[in-house]
């Protein structure tokens, strides 16, 4: 069993580690419709989808109708674009805000390129 100090060190190391960030799509393998979004933690988002599939629940509202029709196993997670870390460690809010802005800009580019709306996808157009 880990002592408290070791647990604290591991938690701090994890919090300071760079998580893969970027743009992803969740693709329905039955009809090829896609949901495009971005995340500050791509691995966490992939794990969320895998967990939903295992538990046969859906926390992605956009996919609800087709999830009910085709089942969770019909959806796959695909990374479209990653942001590389500028430093080994990121700590402060300014760093996170900067990465967030970069990811949001990347998302806009991918939405423009793929147009995952109406019959092509699950995204809603911005008004």
| Percent of residues in beta strands | 15-25%
Q: CATH homologous superfamily name?
A: GIY-YIG endonuclease
How many distinct beta strands?
3
- Assign an overall shape: flat
Main sheet summary: 3 strands, antiparallel
Broad structural category: alpha+beta
Straight-line N-to-C gap = 54 Å
The overall pLDDT average reads 89
Ranges where pLDDT stays below 50 over 5 or more residues in a row are none
List SSEs in N-to-C order. Answer: HEEHHEH
The CATH architecture category equals: 3-Layer(aba) Sandwich
Radius of gyration: 17 Å
CATH topology: GIY-YIG endonuclease
Helical content band: 40-55%
Tell me the domain tally.
1
The number of helical runs is: 4
Q: What keywords describe this structure?
A:
127 residues, GIY-YIG endonuclease, 4 helices, 44% helix, single chain, three-stranded antiparallel sheet, GIY-YIG_endonuc_sf, GIY-YIG nuclease family protein, flat, alpha+beta
């Amino acid at each position: 069993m880990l002592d408290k100090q070791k647990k604290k060190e591991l938690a701090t190391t994890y919090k300071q580690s760079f998580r893969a960030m970027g743009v992803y799509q969740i693709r329905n393998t039955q009809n090829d419709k896609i949901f495009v979004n971005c995340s500050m933690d791509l691995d966490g988002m992939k794990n969320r989808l895998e967990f939903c599939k295992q538990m046969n629940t859906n926390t992605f509202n956009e996919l609800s109708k087709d999830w009910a029709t085709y089942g969770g196993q019909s959806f796959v997670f695909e990374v479209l674009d990653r942001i590389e870390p500028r430093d080994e460690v990121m700590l402060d809010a300014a760093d996170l805000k900067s990465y967030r802005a970069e990811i949001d800009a990347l998302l806009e580019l991918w939405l423009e390129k793929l147009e995952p709306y109406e019959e092509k996808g699950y995204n809603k157009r911005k008004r």
